[in-house]
Amino acid sequence: MAANVGGPLSEREIEELDSALAAVPEPQESLDVVMLDGFLVGLLLQPDPVPADQWLPYVFDSEGQPADPPLAPAAKARIVDLVMRHHNYLAACINAREGFDPIVYPVEDDAGKAVTGRATIEALAPWAAGFMSALNAFPQLLDTYGESSELAESLVGVMRHLPSDPDEPPADARRFAEDKLRIERDMPLADLDDAIEHLVECVLDAADIARPRKPLARETPKVGRNEPCPCGSGRKYKQCHGASSN
Questions:
Q1: How far apart are the C-alpha atoms of 147 and 157, rounded to whole Å?
Q2: Disulfide check for 161: which of 88, 89, 128, 201 has CB 3.0–4.6 Å away?
Q3: 69: preceding bond cis by omega (within 30 degrees)
Q4: What mean pLDDT is predicted for residues 63-79?
């Protein structure tokens, strides 16, 4: 199946979804559309698919708590429809190991002017935060492949975009800083386009580890062209049913 079946959400639909999520009433703290994009990608790297009823609550509240007060049914249904469509699009891309365009918003300076160069990479910070929130909420990926140096390298390619966490234990903070310095040295990034390309490569590399593609299994043994046709006609396979496959 092609990865673009159904296609990505349009820009209008992305804006609609972002506005709808922002309108989720307090005390819920819904994901914004950039964090949601990263969250869904992190979710889709889990070794086994996570049922929608387990992860959808995190869309409406970052802690996964049920909505209170509840959304109007029509508003919630529209959000779920857009989220599921985007989830399925990303799933198709990852399953096919095809590139996708992360949802990011440009970074602006204090005057409201778009920044340029390396400063634009900051736009990936909320995306990476959403990605890591999925791994924290659903730890199967790390529980299963946490000892893989290849996976660790791929995840550093995403985590490099996270700011330092002042509440992180000192040893973890030091290791995180060292990993960031190392990847900045080994894989420097020039701008946001460069950073997005590297991030998507890291995601697909992680998918190769956590969700390896399996060869298609034949339902019946392969028949040689010169062997008798399985249909019982007495003719060679290449002269009978095999002819239609050529």
A1: 17
A2: 128
A3: yes
A4: 84
Residue 133 forms part of a structural domain: yes
Residue 40 C-beta-side C-alpha neighbours within 13 Å: 26
Say whether both 129 and 23 belong to one domain. yes
Q: Whole-angstrom Cα distance, residue 131 to residue 128?
A: 5
The CATH number covering residue 84 comes to: 1.20.120.740
- Give yes or no for residue 232 having a pLDDT over 70: no
Nearest-5° angle of CA 114, CA 115, CA 116? 125
pLDDT of 225: 59
What are the pLDDT digits (tens) for 209-226?
998 876 544 444 555 656
Q: How far is CA 109 from CA 126, 189, 195, in A?
A: 17, 20, 19
Are 73 and 120 contained in the same domain?
yes
- For residue 28, what are its two tokens? 């819920």
Q: Judge if 130 and 184 occupy the same domain.
A: yes
Quick one: tokens of 142? 């790390």
- Do 25 and 108 lie in a common domain? yes
Same domain, 202 and 224: no
Q: How many domains does the chain have?
A: 2
- Give the pLDDT confidence of 82-107 residue by residue, as tens digits: 999 999 999 999 999 999 999 999 89
The residue assigned the tokens 């950073």 is 195
Average model confidence (pLDDT) across the chain: 86
What single-letter amino acid sits at 97?
Answer: R
- 215 part of a folded domain: no
